[in-house]
Design brief:
With 259 residues, the chain is mostly helical. The protein has two domains: 31 residues, no CATH class; 161 residues, no CATH class. A four-stranded antiparallel sheet has the order 1-2-3-4, with no helix packed on it. The longest helix has 41 residues. The radius of gyration is 24 Å and the shape is globular. The two termini are 45 Å apart. The N terminus is likely disordered.
């Protein structure tokens, strides 16, 4: 090992391989080559992917009962499940499992991001990051609950029961469950908005005053995102998503002022 004196008089060490590692910024922060950061990020994202796959595997044995419950809650019991391909039932079950898998993987994603960036964070930033992990899971559960108990009943009521006078509904299992999982996962992700806004301000990525001044731009993005997220031809789900996003954004600004 060889030693090197920095401008402020501190000493840094480099390995025999010729790569210099030295501390900078937050206590314990060690500057490393870009490729080392990329490899570490890849490994941590691979861990999140493993959690996602494990979540699907764990939920799969219970997915059939879950599908029957969804069908009973939202679809007329007189309508039968229709499968138009041999694997449609299996793919529909996998899509429903994805909701559980995303729920347990989101906190793991934030935790792995914390482990990746933790060395460069100050102690107060690390404490804030650790609070984000359980909050992410709770917000996802709350978002999926809103989607399940409010949005889906309204959506299916207008799509099915008001179109029944003109045509007989024959629903594909996979397409129906695809709409359900999109709404549930979408609302779970949407409810992460307060965390993302507060996190961005706390980490210095965006200024609080900038968010306040650019409300019109933020609301435009919200409208575009809600149209992309919700597969509802009646536009009921899109309106609800846009309204909730606007409320969550204003709630995020309130949290920033409080904390």
């Amino acid at each position: 090992m060889d030693s090197q004196h920095t401008v402020d008089g501190t000493t840094s060490t480099g390995k025999a391989s010729g790569m210099n590692s030295y501390t900078s910024g937050a206590p314990g922060d060690i500057e490393e080559p870009l490729m080392a950061h990329l490899f570490e990020l890849r490994n941590r994202l691979a861990i999140v992917l493993i959690w996602l796959v494990l979540g699907i595997i764990i939920a799969f044995p219970f997915s059939a009962k879950g599908m029957l419950l969804v069908w009973k809650d939202f679809i007329n019991s007189d309508l039968y499940m229709t499968a138009y391909s041999p694997l449609e039932w299996t793919f529909a079950r996998l899509k429903l499992c994805l909701v559980f898998a995303v729920a347990i993987s989101l906190p793991q994603l934030f935790y792995q991001l914390y482990r990746f960036a933790g060395k460069g964070l100050y102690p107060h930033e690390r404490r804030f990051f650790l609070k984000v992990i359980p909050a992410s899971f709770l917000l996802f559960i709350f978002g999926t609950s809103v989607g399940y108990f409010i949005v889906l009943p309204v959506m299916f009521k207008y799509i099915l029961f008001y179109s029944g006078d003109m045509a007989t509904a024959q629903l594909s299992v996979q397409e129906t469950l695809s709409a359900v999982t999109t709404i549930l996962v979408g609302f779970g992700v949407v409810f992460q908005l307060p965390l993302l806004v507060v996190f961005s301000v706390k980490m210095g990525l965006v200024e609080y005053q900038t968010l306040k001044k650019q409300r019109v731009l933020v609301y435009s993005v919200i409208m575009a995102f809600s149209l992309f997220l919700s597969p509802d031809p009646t536009f009921i789900a899109q309106i609800l998503v846009a309204f909730l996003l606007a409320v969550l954004f204003e709630f995020s600004l309130l949290l920033i002022r409080i904390f």
